[in-house]
Each structure stands twice: as C-alpha cells, then as structure tokens.
Amino acid sequence: VTALGKFQDLSGDAERAAVNAIATEITGGSNINYAKSLIGTPAIRIGDATAGVDVDAGTEACNDVDIASLLRGNAIPAVNGKVVALTSSTEACAAVGDDYTCAVTLGGIALNPVVTTTLVCTDT
Known about the structure:
Layout: H1 2-38, H2 57-61, H3 64-68, E1 84-87, E2 99-106, E3 109-120
Antiparallel strand pairs: 1-2, 2-3
C-alpha cells in the first residue's frame, strides 16, 4: 500500500513536469514567432493583434489551434492520454508585442498550482 501511494505521487509529478515542459515550449515558440515577425519572416498570427483592435481573450487569445501551430507537429501533445489545453486569459492583445498568459489544463482540470504559458501578440 505504501509503494502504491508513492507511485501515484510520482505519476502526478511526472504529469506536472510534462505539462510544464509543454508550457515552456509554447512560450519559447511564441517568442521565436514574434522575433520572426519583427524581421519580416512569415509568422503565425497570435492573439490577432491588429492595430487598434482589442481581441476578445475568451475566444481568441488562448486558441489551442493557433497556438498548436507554434509546436513541432502542429499539435499540443497529450500527457498520459489526457488532453493538454489552454484556458481563456483575462488579458487581450491591444498591440503587436503585448504579451499575455494562458492557464494550461490537463484532462480538462486546472493544475494546482496553476501552470501558465506566456504568448506574444503578433499580426502577420
């Protein structure tokens, strides 16, 4: 019984570490994407930061489909068969270069403490 309890704790720790790694990869991909947009290389539109137009954070800012395109394979990987997803941010893009955060969930459940990823707004 003791060994089983420790295994369950390690399994949860491993899932959290995998989710943290995915969140870090998304942040890194967003930073590279923004840098590409600054030098005129085709980049992915993140947050739809059109000049002078605020984005509805609930519908666009943490869009899994757009953000997945920042990752190798154009998909956010699952962890232990559980879907990793981004939940709505309370912030929106008012201008290119703004940044905002999205909470990362595992299997539809928010992690405690919350895991977040930071995205940089682009419009290319």
